[in-house]
Design a protein that fits this description.
Length: 667
């Protein structure tokens, strides 16, 4: 057996680790990817060019440098990203001192851990599929190092794939029956200094910020309604509510935390649904206006934003209830809330303030209509690529560029309302979504990010007003893709707004491609629901429905033990059956002969040959002496004689005839 890896072993391992590094490239700092690749090339040079192995002091210096680099990159926070960077860099460095079979196996085992870390970043079906090739190659590397002679790659891959396939039954048993417990068995803190951002909403908004999300076609969340899906124009997914502004940035207010819960009155039929929310590193949970029932792990702010107790770092699923018919805060508006919702920065946007002050004598409804009339009748343009604004951003937008995305219209509208004496605030979230007909669920993407306004009107409370609808009604009625197609080109604009959409969003131009995309998304959603979402609640519900009885943790443990024992027994049976010697036709006939003698308590002893056994039979049954010696001699001839004047088929036929005619009961 090999005692040390050779060049073939190392080349196989280097190719496998290169694939793993490629899969993790987006999860690592770029410098870790570069040095890992350098270490791999270095090791290849040692194999192919006879470069010398690095000295211990060189390895020590590199190790210290990597450690300092990781501390500097992640700010001393040890978490998921930090541990991956440390593991990958140290694994790559280990290649430069790998000499023995033990070192080689250690590198392979560490490779398994690095592949497993893919699922700490993404648990999609694609990640699962992409993890299969490196797992197969790593297993093939283990097979290769333990073989006494070199084998072709096809043999190694087939053998490795066979081993992984044999593990599937055990994997399924553990997946279905192993008791789930709330929360992970172990976890690493998420890195606050992670260089890898996640899309989503934050607790502030600036001009051009939401429009940047329009370039992102990734899924923000999926929604499964228990009844009829609401109309597109009613799909306002509520996120953070913003109260205070500094120049062109709007934020949630610390002072708003001390405001009492706004009273909510609901009517009509409730809208029940389940949301599968993608990770976004924030605490916000998206819910349909107006949320009435929220998850247990979340709280409701005074202005009806839903906030989780912990940031959403992994995909989560929750049930919710909302009402389309509601009145929010209609009974009263506290003085603190009124002050916050009328607050304006001094010394900026004077033209906007002057315009709104002309409306102070109008009723609240007329003031709202005047602002919407401004957007409808003037030459405003809806664009995904708005220009940069000046020191007075609202003035610059309303009176100069007049080109903006939803945040431009929402923020400008709120400033106009406040300047006219009407309490108003900015609401951010998502609007609309695309119905996937294959599973009848709604896909809400990052490019559906939206912002709108809420104005407080006497006896009506906080009323949603979406000024974007005054400029681009298609955005609200049919979604951002159709709005971009229908948008009027602004003066000097050479490209259509649709060209600003991400390439994946333009698949609607090709119906077959778009349908295939929706089909794949449906499969991915099924994976999320039944594999990633197979939690304690779903496990007990599914097994209770199958068995017709209440399933507890103790029941699961008993079933798991039974299943493992059964699976283990079946495996042993297959192994023993496979390894059992196959009897020849001669042995089968001789066994038949022995069974006819068992009623006379005559069976051969382990050490007893055919002729010795025949002598005992002849002594016990003298009347068949000639037959038993004839059978013994023919058996020995067929089993052990290499030479005979008769063909084997003739000998076997004579032997079979003698066995068939033998009857020890005849006297």
């Amino acid at each position: 057996m090999n005692t040390s890896p050779n060049a073939q072993h190392f080349k196989w391992l280097l190719a496998t680790l290169a694939l793993i590094l490629l899969l993790h490239a987006g999860n690592l700092p770029i410098w870790v990817v570069i040095i890992s690749a350098i270490f791999g090339i270095w090791r290849y040079g040692i194999l192919s060019k006879n470069w010398p192995m690095p000295k211990l002091y060189v390895l020590g210096s590199i190790t210290i440098g990597i450690g300092l680099g990781i501390i500097f990159t992640f700010g001393g926070v040890f978490g998921r990203d930090t541990s991956l960077a440390l593991l990958v860099s140290m694994l790559s460095l280990k290649l430069l001192e790998t000499k023995t079979k033990r070192d080689y196996i250690l590198v392979v085992i560490l490779g398994y851990f690095v592949v497993g870390k893919l699922f700490l970043f993404n648990q999609s079906m694609l990640t699962f599929v992409l993890s299969i090739p490196p797992l197969t190659l790593l297993t093939a590397a283990l097979v290769q190092i333990n073989l006494t002679s070199a084998q072709p790659s096809t043999y190694l891959l087939k053998y490795s794939a066979k081993m992984l396939l044999q593990a599937i039954p055990l994997m399924l048993v553990l997946f279905v029956l192993f008791p789930r417990i709330p929360g992970p068995l172990w976890s690493l803190p998420q890195d606050a200094h992670s260089k890898i951002g996640l899309p989503g909403l934050s607790d502030s908004i600036k001009f051009n910020q939401v429009s940047q999300n329009a370039q992102d076609n990734s899924v923000a969340f999926r929604v499964k309604f228990k009844g009829v899906v609401p109309a597109q124009h009613n799909l306002y997914w509520r996120g953070p509510v913003l109260w205070t502004a500094y120049q062109d940035e709007w934020n949630i207010s610390d002072q708003a935390a001390y405001i009492y819960q706004e009273p909510l009155a609901v009517g009509g039929q409730p809208i029940e649904y389940s949301i599968t929310l993608e990770p976004h590193k924030q605490k916000w949970l998206l819910m349909l206006d107006m949320p009435n029932q929220i998850p247990d792990f979340a709280t409701l702010t005074h202005d009806y934003s839903v906030v989780a107790k912990e940031p959403v770092y992994t995909r989560i699923r929750y049930d919710a209830t909302s009402y389309a018919n509601y009145r929010l805060g209609a009974n009263r508006l506290s003085q603190r809330e009124k002050n916050l919702s009328l607050q304006l920065e001094e010394g900026i946007n004077p033209r906007t303030i002057a315009l709104a002050e002309q409306w102070t004598d109008l009723s609240a409804e007329e003031t709202v209509n005047q602002a919407l009339k401004l957007f409808r009748e003037k030459e405003f343009y809806y664009t995904l690529n708005p220009p940069i604004l000046g020191k007075n951003p609202i003035d610059d937008f309303l009176f100069n560029s007049r080109r903006g995305f939803c945040e431009h219209y929402a923020i400008s509208f709120v400033v106009l309302m406040r300047a006219a004496g009407l309490p108003a605030r900015v609401v951010t979230g998502y609007q609309g979504g695309e119905l996937n007909p294959h599973d009848n669920f709604l896909i809400v993407r990052q490019m559906d990010a939206h912002s709108w306004a809420e104005v407080w009107l006497k006896d009506r409370g906080w009323v949603r007003v979406d000024p974007t609808a005054a400029v681009a009604p298609t955005r609200i009625e049919r979604g951002i893709v159709e709005a971009a197609r229908a948008a009027r080109p602004a003066p000097g604009q050479t490209k259509s707004e649709a060209s600003n959409l991400p390439v994946a969003a333009r698949s609607k131009n090709y119906p077959w491609l778009h349908q295939m995309t929706l089909r794949l998304d449906s499969i991915d959603n099924g994976w999320n629901q039944w594999v990633i979402g197979y939690n304690q609640k779903k496990q007990q519900a599914v097994l209770s429905q199958i068995t017709g009885q209440n399933v507890t943790v103790n029941t699961l443990l008993i079933w798991l033990i039974y299943a493992l024992v059964l699976l283990g027994g079946l495996t042993l049976f297959i192994i023993f059956r496979k390894n059992r010697l196959k009897l020849s036709r001669t042995q089968q006939l001789y066994g038949q002969y022995i069974r006819t003698l068992r009623p006379f308590n005559l069976t051969p002893k382990p050490h007893e040959g055919a002729l010795d056994f025949a002598e005992r039979v002849a002594m016990a049954l003298p009347h068949v002496k000639r037959e038993v010696f004839n059978i013994a001699e023919r058996y020995n001839t067929l089993q052990y004689s290499r030479f005979s004047s008769l063909p084997d088929t003739t000998l076997l036929a004579d032997f079979e005839k003698a066995i068939q005619q033998f009857n020890p009961k005849n006297t």
